Amino acid sequence: MQLHQLQPVHKQKRSQLVGRGGKRGKTSGRGGKGQTARSGHKVRPEFRDILMRIPKQRGRGTNVFKSFKEKPAIVSLVDIDNMFSAGTSVTPELLVEKGLVKKVEGSIPKVKILGDGEITKKISVLGCEMSESARAKIEKIK
Question: What is the pLDDT of residues 21-69, one digit of tens each?
Fold first, then answer.
């Protein structure tokens, strides 16, 4: 017996092609109509669509670190006028002591003084940001 003389005992049965009409009936095992009935169909995960939308909702690169910028604690001139006597140097440390500003994570934050109301006492401000109206009112008293 030689290799070319070998014969299979059973004839080879061809595998059935699915989804090409044929003997499996109306949808040939593909279910109903629409996206899932098409060849190469793949339903996208909903989570991926939500994840891809986040950069657009965030603003896509504009002002990326805006939320990380440290915002100053705000104090009005009226509060300073009520809490401090004439001739006092107002500093962020004194404002924390008086209770006008709270510490942020154990450290004294930046402070900005706004020009709400009027000031009647002569004071000096050190280490604080000021709005233009607050600066003008404080300099007018001097």
Answer: 656 666 777 777 888 888 888 888 888 888 888 777 776 666 667 777 7
- Specify the amino acid at residue 62: T
| CATH numbers and ranges of domains, the chain | 67-141 (3.100.10.10)
- This prediction has a pTM of 0.53
Q: Which of 64, 19, 67 is closest to 40 using CA atoms?
A: 19
CB burial string 65-104: b at 16+ within 10 A, e below: eeeeeeeebebbbebbbebbeeeeebbbebbbeeebbeee
Task: Flag whether pLDDT at 3 surpasses 70.
Answer: yes
Distance CA 75, CA 77 (A): 7
